[in-house]
Each structure stands twice: as C-alpha cells, then as structure tokens.
Amino acid sequence: TKVSLTGIKPTGEPHLGNLIGAIRPALELVDRFESIYFIADYHALTTERDPELLRHYSRSVAATWLAAGLDPSRTTFYRQSDVPEIFELMWVLSCVTGKGLMNRAHAYKAARDRNLEAGEDPDAGVNMGLFNYPVLMAVDILAMESDVVPVGKDQVQHVEYAADIAGSFNHAYGDTYSFTIPEAIVPEGTSAQTLPGLDGRKMSKSYDNTIPLFLPEAELKKLVRRIPTDSTPVSEPKDPDSSAVFQLLEQFAAPADAAETRKRLEEGGLGWGELKNQLFEALDEHLAPLRARYDELMEPGSELDTVLAEGAEKARQRAGRVLRRVRGAVGIAGSA
Ligand code: TYM
C-alpha cells in the first residue's frame, strides 16, 4: 500500500484552513493509503519563542487531529520531535540540496522581499531554521517513504522541493538506496485549496486573519460578523465566488444547501447579514461535536500523551529503517 503523510505546524490555534486544506482530505485517504500524520513541532521553532505556548499549541494540534476523527489504531500519529532519526537525515539531505533551491523558496523569498522593500539588510530577522525549513520538511516526507502528501495550495512548492531533493539523492546514490518521489494532493475547488480568512486573503496564522476551530459560540459568531462584504443591497444580485462568506459556507454547508444559497445570491434577494447567519449555523453545527471531544482531550492526563508515545515508536522504527539504508548508501561507518 502507498503511504499518505502530512503535518501541521503548531504556531497557533488550529483554524478552518487547516481542517479544510489538510485534515479533512488527509482523513479521507485513510481507507486507501497507509496514513502517517504528525505535529511539526520543531518547524514551529523557527518563529515561536514562547516555550509554554509552543507546548500548548503542540497539544492543541494533536487534540484537533483526534477530535476531527483520526483513529490512532489505523494511522501512525506522532510528534516530529519524538523521532530523532529525522534530524540525522536532515544533515544528510542538506548535503545534497543546492543552496540556490533554498534561495527561491517562497517563505524565505517573501522575507527577503519585505526587508528589501523596507530598505533593510535582506536577511534581517531570517534565522537558519527559516532558511533550512524546506529541507526539514523534505525529510519529514522522505523519511517515511511517502507517496502522497495532502496539503493546501500554499505547501505545494515544499512538496515539489522534497521531490527535487529526493531526486538529487537518488542521482548520487540510487544504486544502493532510492527515496520514494512524493507528490502533493490538493483538495478540489479553489476555496478549499486556499480557504479565505477574515480579511478575504488566504486564511493564515501569519496574517492574523484566522477563524480558530474551537471558539466558544459567541466568539465564533463575532468573528463571522467581521468578515468584510461589499455594500450591494439585499435585493441586488451578488457574485458568490468573490465572497469570502460564501466560499466558507461552501465548505461547511451540505452541498444542496450551498447550491441553493448560490442561486439566491445570484438572483438577488439574499443579504450578507442572512448569509453570515447561515455560515455561523453551518460552522457551529459542524464544529460543536468536535469541540466537545477536543475539550476532553485537552484535559491534563487525557489519552493524548499515550497515543503520541505509541505513534512515536512506530514512526521511529520506520525512519530508523530508512536511516540505516541511507547511512549505508552514503558511506557512514557502522551502518551495515
Ligand atoms: P501549516 O501548519 O501552515 O498548515 C497546515 C496545513 O493546512 C493547510 N492550510 C490551508 N489550506 C487551505 N486554505 C488555507 N487557508 C490554509 N492554511 C493552511 C496547509 O496547506 C497545510 O497543509 N510546512 C507545513 C507543515 C509541515 C508539513 C510537513 C506538511 C511540516 N512538515 C510535511 C506536509 C508534509 C506548514 O507549515 O503547514
């Protein structure tokens, strides 16, 4: 069976974009793939400086996966930091990765461009963790011999980099060991590939425009009211596809209801206020059961820790097998 793998970085409360772009599609693959899902906690260290918060967000991402339906008896589920083999492989793969490739990575380039625009040193505030980020992500993927990687659109370049890096390794050492070449799977439909946030841009922790998954109802309602809309009067026709409210609704309402709402918007007669009420209802209905489960899992002493410890064992065995073969292929002593 082929392997499906994906991870989420614990840099903030998990949000609707994570659920729609990654968690839901990943869980749909469990029947057809061997599934391996994890919490990319060391990736979060490139930006998170508060140890308590990092611990909290790591638990929170883990609880979210389980609340959303991940079954640890069918999926290998672990924290990246519990698998030291990944960090040894990170060095080996760094040595076959061109620096030029990393110079072109979106996140690093965006930081440089921001600095240049502000007239600062282009590398101001850029740490080596941010620069090496795509190599670590490549290792996450390659160490588990992943075939497919379900992600939102913003992560596709990273998966292509992993394929590139695997290619470089295979070119040099393919006679003795070859990495599996991974491929990204993105959900269908633009609103799922890039779910809009509160300001209409991509929902992202770095834009501070997210709708967290597990808010108390009153706060969820408040956030939904904040999503910007234009001033088209209730009676006038509206374009569903340029409305963040509708794009969000499309992902959470039953398809027949969303189709009906699309028609009413296009015909005119449905106002933004009513549309927002519909969105709040759909979100709340969808998320309320998950929220209850999430709250239980976040209690100290819940099964979260045992689940992650068992997952780490399985993940280490897998990565250890790959690491031994890689050490052998590159000529590191004691590898056999
Ligand atoms: P992260 O933590 O930023 O996001 C986790 C997943 O959620 C998806 N996503 C979205 N999808 C649709 N619309 C949105 N607005 C939206 N926002 C986030 C992301 O595309 C992602 O799939 N580098 C990764 C974590 C990572 C990883 C890996 C992923 C580390 N190693 C190995 C896959 C395989 C990241 O920062 O995702």
TrEMBL record:
A motif ('HIGH' region) lies at residues 10-18. The keyword Iron does not apply. It catalyses: tRNA(Trp) + L-tryptophan + ATP = L-tryptophyl-tRNA(Trp) + AMP + diphosphate + H(+). L-tryptophan binds at residue 140. It is found in: Cytoplasm. InterPro entries: aa-tRNA-synth_I_CS, aa-tRNA-synth_Ic, Rossmann-like_a/b/a_fold, Trp-tRNA-ligase, Trp-tRNA-ligase_bac-type, Trp-tRNA_synthetase. GO terms for biological process: tryptophanyl-tRNA aminoacylation. The keyword Cytoplasm applies. HAMAP family: Trp_tRNA_synth_B. Catalyzes the attachment of tryptophan to tRNA(Trp). Homodimer. This is Tryptophan--tRNA ligase. It comes from Haloechinothrix aidingensis.
